[in-house]
Each structure stands twice: as structure tokens, then as C-alpha cells.
Amino acid sequence: MPQDWPRHPEKLIRAYREHGFREERTLDALLREQAERHGDRLALVSGADRYDYAALDLLVDRVAAGLAALPVRRGERVLLRLPNRGEYVVALFALLRIGAVPVLALPSLGPADLESLLRTSEACAVVTAPGRGGGAAAAARIGADAPSVRHVITAGPPEEGALPWGSLAESAPLPPARRADPEDLALLLLSGGTTGTPKLIPRTHADYGYNALASARACGVDRDAVYLAVLPAAHNFPMVSPGIVGVLGSGGAVVLGPDPSPTTAFALVERERATITSLVPALVPSWLEEAGRTRHDLSSLRVLQVGGARLDEATARRVGPVLGCRLQQVFGMAEGLNNYTALDDPEDVVCTTQGRPLSPADEVLVVGEDGSPVPPGSPGELLTRGPYTLRGYYRARELDPLRFTPDGFYRTGDLVTRSERGDLTVVGRVKDQVNRAGEKIAAVEVEEHLMALPGVRAAAVLGVPDPVLGERSVAVLVTDGPLPAREEVRAAMLERGAAPFKVPDEVRWAASLPLTGVGKIDKKRLRRDFEGL
After folding, report:
1. pLDDT tens-digit profile of 22-57?
2. Average pLDDT score over the chain
3. Which alpha helices (DSSP H) does 297-346 contain, by range?
4. 498, 453 in Cβ contact below 8 A?
5. Is residue 481 in a domain?
6. Cα separation of 437 and 423, whole Å?
């Protein structure tokens, strides 16, 4: 039977373990150990619900037993499609505890993406909740076409055809299960996707645990940390950089914010005395504006992490004076490599770079179009391999020759410069995608939707610099008749199952699209031409 995903070579794993670059425990064991050490300490806050470590660990045990009784079996995949609420954290650790594999999906994903994820992962169950993207009924409709789905579980009001979340928590805790191998598949993350629908990223207990705990050390997170998670928990950034897993694994407290608006977040910072939180650049200006007039006490906040896209220098320099905390820039990817500016870095480094690799074992190459290394300060594509960077996507081996070098380096598609001391600065992308407010949008996927519109003969999607979003998406269309308005495009794309954030921010007309010598759309030329549109 072919392997679903390529692992690191055994010889390399042994070397990583010898030097402490792989975690020897499973992810759920991190929570268990903290519960045994200081069970009465606060672990998780979600709305009015507050759990100390002992209570959280017991609830995880009960839900794990309920899932096993369905049954959800070891190695089976379960799609998590939940907003930031306590059930997300409990379901994640409960699945890990029984050896099942959570698939972390954003609540905002459209039906087309969800159908693709269910088909690729062959998930046996979906855990969902009412709200944006629909609840159990929507998941049930999608799951009806996926023969692998046996159960739909809803963390909300009862819905026909769905199992209520509360019934899982009524189960008696399971007896101790056989210990999982830390090198086992732990969970599946979603890639930003550069061709079509998102790809699944396999992460093991060993690599993800190391990623989380090493990040916690780099970010000054310990048992006194209070992490406010306002970005969607399904993202790698708020999950493991150091995020929910890194903070809980360090004995700190996690506060789940229902949305990233500054009015909501500032109230939680004051109430819970939050010490660290994470944002994408598009959210920073509104936080700075609100901070100038808020009456909430933000004095507990020590670190604001910003990642997912490049933060402009002018905004970066305002963070410290306005919010009264330290800025930490973060540059990473769900596929692995994380970079951080250090908390004691000079201000110029913090405000103008995206940091240095997390691990001494992270290997980084910056290469030109011919694959040769470029000198410090020159732009090139970032290639990387290391103890927590994948060696291939899940059930997508056809991508290996495209996304990985023969010696195992992952082609990130990011265009960066590297300073003499190793600081990375993101200057663009090689891959054809739009980085809109931290959400990676595959141009080809949107173009496919646009080409389905009546009268559209050709379509190209570009990422154009935007002071708020980082990049806004612009659709350039060649049409037989009138140019469709953006609202028409939006309605058509949503009807086809696209996620709302993938709808172009702007729609432009062109008489024709420039082509390369082999007949492909010449986006470099189109981007230059766009400056004059």
C-alpha cells in the first residue's frame, strides 16, 4: 500500500532527536503532563467558560471516550470546522488522545474547498458549529456526497442528522490507551494553495511539538503567559507559533477571542491580563487607532506578534509607542519553517525584517532563477528543510518534483533577502498567489471561477500592494460584452462554492491579456501594464 505522505529519512530523524530537535512526547501528552503538574492553574478561557488544567484534561478524556464510542478509530481523519471556542481545543486534544487525525479547516472555507478536503482526507466525521459557513446542516449536505463521512457533530443547537457535542462529554473517561509513536501523523493542516484547492500538510507529534515548544522559548512564553487567540485557530500561526499548543505545553493560559476586532480584544486583554497575542498586518492599523481612544487597560500586554504577510515599516514603528508592548515579527508557513525577530533585537531589525529561523537545524537557501545561491542582500527564492518542515504533501505525491528539490528542500515560493547575520526580509513571491490579509489565495483557482462567468473569454488575477490588506486581489477580464460588476462576480463565485475572501477586491477590463512565448498569460508584463491602468 503506498504511503500517504513522505517522512523524513530515519537517519535524519535519529540525528534530530539526538540534538533535541524532535519532541519525544505526543501532543496530547503535553496537556496531560501540565494537568498532573499544576492541575489548579488556569488553562483555557472561552466566553464565560473557564477551565483549569485538571478540568480541561478530564473533559478531553470524556470527549475522547465519546468519539471512540461512535466509533472514531485510530488513524481516521476528522474535519474540524469550528470558530474560536472551547470545543475546538477540546476536540483537537481528544482526537489526538485516541490516535485520530484532526484536519484543521477554516470556518470560512466554501463548499468547494470542503468537498475537496473531505475527498482527499477521506474524513470519517465533521465537527462543526453554527455561524459563518453554516452549521451541521451545511456540513451534512457536503458530507452526503462524501461516502467516508459517517458522523456530523455540532457544537451548537440540536440539528437533524447531527450528533450534539454535549453527548460526547457525557462519556466516562477511557482507560489509558497504548502510547502513540511521536513520529505518527498527528494532524493535517491546510496549505495556502498555489494551484487549485488547498493541499493537506502532514505534521507529526514529534515535529509539531518541537515547533510549538521551541517557539514558546523564542517568544518568552512560560507558565505565566496569557495568550489571546483572536486569529482563526485553524491557522498554523495561532496554533503553534507558539499559539495554543505552545502555550498549553508551557503551562500558560489560552484565551479564545471570538473575533479580532480591537474593541472585543482590548476588553479581553484587560479582563484576562493577556500578555501576548498575534495579528496579521491588515489588523494592526485598526488596533493602533483604537488604542489611542480606548479606556481599557492594556498594560499587561508585553508582546504583539505580527505575521502572515509583511508589515510595513511605518506601521511597525508605531506598535511600541502606541500599544506599549514589544513588536515581534513572525514569518512562517504551515509547511514548517518559522522565523522570529528576537525580543531583544534592535528596533531597526524588528521593524524592517521578518526574523531568523527558529531552529539551529533549519537549513535555509536563497537562490536565483538558475538555482544558485545569491549573495546577502540580493533577492532570491527561499528554500528550506529542517526538523519540522514537511518532505511532501498528504496524498499529493505528484507535487513532490514541483515543490521539493531532489535533496529534500521545500521550495517556499517566497522571494526574500537575507542579511549577513541571517535576518530574512520578504520582498515578494515567486508563486502565483495573492497574500490578502494573511490569507493565501491561489490565482488559478479564482481564475477558474471567473472563466465560468458568461461572456468572460480570459481572466487573470493579480496581487497588488495595498496599505491595509498587504495585497488586494485584482481580476483582469477580457469579455465579449459589458464588464461584470464586482457584486455580480461575488454572487457568482459564492454560488459556485468559493470562500468570500477569495472574491476579487477589484475587477478591471482589458482588450486582451499578454502572453508568453509558450502561450501562457504573461503576468509579469500584465502587472507592469496594470500600473498604468
Report:
1. 999 999 999 999 999 999 999 999 999 999 999 999
2. 91
3. 313-323
4. no
5. yes
6. 23
What is the rounded average pLDDT of the residues 293-306? 98
User: What are 153's strand-pairing partners?
Assistant: 127, 163
Which of 432, 300, 427, 424 has its CA nearest to residue 364? Answer: 424
* Residues 171 and 314 placed together within one structural domain of the fold: yes
What SS3 class is residue 212? Answer: helix
CB atoms within 10 A of CB 227: 28
The pTM score is 0.87
**Are residues 228 and 348 located together in one domain of the fold?**
yes
| 81: helix, strand or coil | strand
Share of the chain above pLDDT 70, in %: 93
Question: What pLDDT is attached to residue 242?
Answer: 98
- What stretches of 105-251 adopt beta strand conformation (E)? 125-128, 151-154, 163-164, 185-190, 200-204, 226-229
List all residues 6 or more positions away from 176 whose beta carbon is below 8 Å from its beta carbon: none
Task: Give the end of a domain, one of 413, 443, 460.
Answer: 413
Is 77 strand, coil or helix? strand
| Res 494 pLDDT > 70 | yes
The burial of 106, by beta-carbon neighbours within 10 Å (0-12 exposed, 13-18 middle, 19 or more buried), is given as buried
331 and 456 housed in the same domain: no
**pLDDT tens per residue, range 402-451:** 899 999 999 998 989 999 999 999 987 776 888 899 888 878 789 879 98
pLDDT band at 520 (very low <50, low <70, confident <90, very high): low
For residues 360 and 458, state if they share a domain. Answer: no
* 529 burial level (CB within 10 Å; 0-12, 13-18, 19+): middle
* Cα–Cα distance for residue pair 120/103, rounded to 1 Å: 11
> Per-residue pLDDT for 133 more than 70?
no
* Total domain count, the chain: 2
Q: How many whole angstroms separate alpha carbon 474 and alpha carbon 489? A: 12
Q: What is the CATH number of the domain that holds 346?
A: 3.40.50.12780
Residue 321 domain flag: yes
**Same domain, yes or no: 128 and 215:** yes
Runs of H (alpha helix) within 342-480? 347-352, 400-403, 443-451
Please check whether residues 445 and 381 belong to one and the same domain.
no
Claim to verify: residue 370 and residue 512 sit in the same structural domain: no
Average pLDDT for residues 119-131, to the nearest whole number? 91
In a domain, 420, yes or no: no
Both 398 and 468 in one domain: the answer is no
Query: Which CATH number covers residue 524?
Result: 3.30.300.30
Instruction: Evaluate whether 431 touches 413 at the Cβ level (below 8 Å).
Output: yes
As a whole number, mean pLDDT of residues 475-486 equals: 94
pLDDT in tens, 207-230: 999 999 999 999 999 999 999 999
Domain that holds residue 515: 434-530
User: Is residue 5 a part of any domain in this protein?
Assistant: no
Of 40, 42, 39, the C-alpha closest to 224 is 42
